[in-house]
Amino acid sequence: MAFIYGFATFFLLCFIHPCFSALVQEQPLVLKYHNGVLLKGNFSVNLIWYGKFTPAQRSVIVDFINSLSSTSETAPSASSWWKTTEKYKGGASTLAVGKQVLFENYPLGKTLKNPHLLALASKVNGVNTINVILTAKDVAVEGFCMRCGTHGSTKGMRGSARGVFLWVGNSETQCPGQCAWPFHQPIYGPQTPPLVAPNGDVGMDGMIINLATLLAGTVTNPFNNGYFQGPANAPLEAVSACTGIFGSGSYPGYPGQLLVDKTTGASYNANGLNGRKYLLPAMWDPPTSACKTLV
Questions:
Q1: Could you point out which of 16, 44, 61, 99 has its C-alpha 20 to 30 Å from the C-alpha of 186?
Q2: Per its UniProt record, what Pfam families does this chain match (predicted)?
């Protein structure tokens, strides 16, 4: 099971060890392919909403996922960001929202452990599906704050194929300095003013960053034998290898040069469907072995 860790962990390494970032820059960033299966083709993304989300909050996520495979967006677009995954062996992964299941009454309680996530992931079955568990801001999940989300797989039952799932939590009130940066001040380092969230919701816009990270990791390393660097139980994947980078000129504590909406003052780097704007993290680009940004 792969985790994504908050920006604060990344920044702390560079803050304590000033030479760390310079050493990393001198090393080529290479994600090794471990000859495993990647997710290629058409996939339905099933959304499992755990806890209370407003319709407006749910639409932010739905529009984002559907934007990834759209052809009608203004550049720079969420779909052009996602196209980088085509450069990983095997071609394109086309995503579209499938089923949506709401658990607004917290049937498993407000404190979830890893087995609960597996149980929720098993609530929706299907071929060529990715089950996404989204937990509300008042739901505590095992390891939250040490990780901003995770992706993994479920064992196939009665000869069925293994399923893949991921979990992302709303960090509006839980570790926003770790999991919602740069829309919240970081836990460590210079306390620069946070950026304005493009969808007006720090928790949901933070979820978009982590969801994007995990979706890319899911299709390029679904079963811990795809593309990654480092140990399989704590891999650096397509986007988590580029933590903290959103635009050109980024460095620890500074997300890089971004676009700014003239009306709202919100920072973003990708356009989506229905007039949406998103801030998406850099993704490792196989041909150049570098973290690629949209702006």
A1: 61
A2: Phi_1
Tell me, yes or no, whether 251 lies in a domain.
yes
Give the type of residue at 96.
Answer: A
Query: Does the residue 292 lie in any domain?
Result: no
Place of tokens 């593309």: 227
pLDDT score for 189 = 77
- The residue assigned the tokens 């570790």 is 175
Alpha carbon distance 211, 113 (integer Å): 19
Q: Which domain holds residue 218?
A: 2-26+37-283
Q: Note whether residue 289 is domain-resident.
A: no
* Cβ atoms within 10 Å, residue 123: 13
Cα(278)–Cα(267) distance, integer angstroms: 8
pLDDT digits (tens, 9 = 90+) for 185-230: 988 777 889 999 999 999 999 999 999 999 999 999 999 999 999 9
- Do the strands 2-4 and 149-154 form a parallel or antiparallel pair, or are they unpaired? antiparallel
Which residues are CB-contacts of 150 (< 8 A; sequence separation ≥ 6)? Answer: 1, 2, 3, 4, 117, 143, 166, 167, 214
Residue type present at position 213: T
Q: How far is CA 55 from the centre of its chain?
A: 21
Burial class (CB within 10 angstroms; exposed 0-12, middle 13-18, buried 19+) of 173: exposed
If 0-12 CB within 10 Å is exposed, 13-18 middle and 19+ buried, where does residue 282 land?
A: buried
**Is 18 domain-assigned?**
yes
